[in-house]
Amino acid sequence: MTKKVFKFITVDNVEKEEAFLEEMANKGWFFNKYASLRYHFDQGEPAEYTYCIDYKEDAEDIDEYLALFEDAGWEHVYAYPILNGNWMYFRKAAKEGALREAIFTDDASMVALWKRIRSRWTWFGSIMSLVLIILAVSYSFLSLYTAIFTFMLGFLVIALYVKMYMRITRKIKLRRGRTSIFE
């Protein structure tokens, strides 16, 4: 049996997405893909899994990349293509009584990931915002209601990307602060 769940989680909230996938596995629903803002799950016996998500930009060394994770005990579940890269979904059976495992074992790696994500999504958000503003101005000559709707959509996109940018920047600063304490 399969199940599709609509859930909107922004890129600055990877931890929330991982927790959601882990919660579903605990209920016997195992993530297998993401499409059209829906998570797709296969039903099975409830189990504890740790899910981790990475953003992979280069496809050139994909076999080495996946082998590295496999050697560490991670199962590659799904690759979601977006912005000239892929969100890479991995899972690993959780060990009873052990701490939650992570694919990033140091703060410097996590900071590098957040910087890549922030850079890609900032460009995308800026372009989308600019396009929506241009459309709103263009539509203002045709229909006031269409222009207002497009302007409101543009404002929503801008607000979403500003929130994402600020959250990711905060995460980078927190990780850098932890890194500098231990150096």
How would you explain this protein's 3D organization?
With 183 residues, the protein is an alpha+beta fold. The chain contains four helices and six strands; from the N terminus they run βαβββαββαα. The protein has helices at 14-26, 62-71, 107-139, 144-182, and strands at 2-6, 29-35, 38-43, 49-56, 75-82, 85-93. The strands form two sheets. A three-stranded antiparallel sheet has the order 1-3-2. The longest helix has 39 residues, at 144-182. The radius of gyration is 19 Å and the shape is globular. 18% of the residues are buried.
Throw out a few tags for this protein:
three-stranded antiparallel β-sheet; 183 residues; alpha+beta
Q: What is the number of E strands?
A: 6
User: Regarding quaternary structure, how should these chains be classified?
Assistant: single chain
Tell me about the biggest sheet?
A: 3 strands, antiparallel
Q: Note the overall shape.
A: globular
* Helix content estimate: 40-55%
Instruction: Write down the domain tally.
Output: 2
Mean pLDDT metric = 85
Strand residue percentage = 15-25%
- Rounded radius of gyration (Å): 19 Å
Which parts are unreliable, with pLDDT below 50 for 5 consecutive residues or more? 179-183
Task: Return the structural class.
Answer: alpha+beta
Span of the ends, CA to CA: 50 Å
| Tally of helical runs | 4
Strand order of the largest sheet: 1-3-2
Q: SSE string, helix = H, strand = E?
A: EHEEEHEEHH
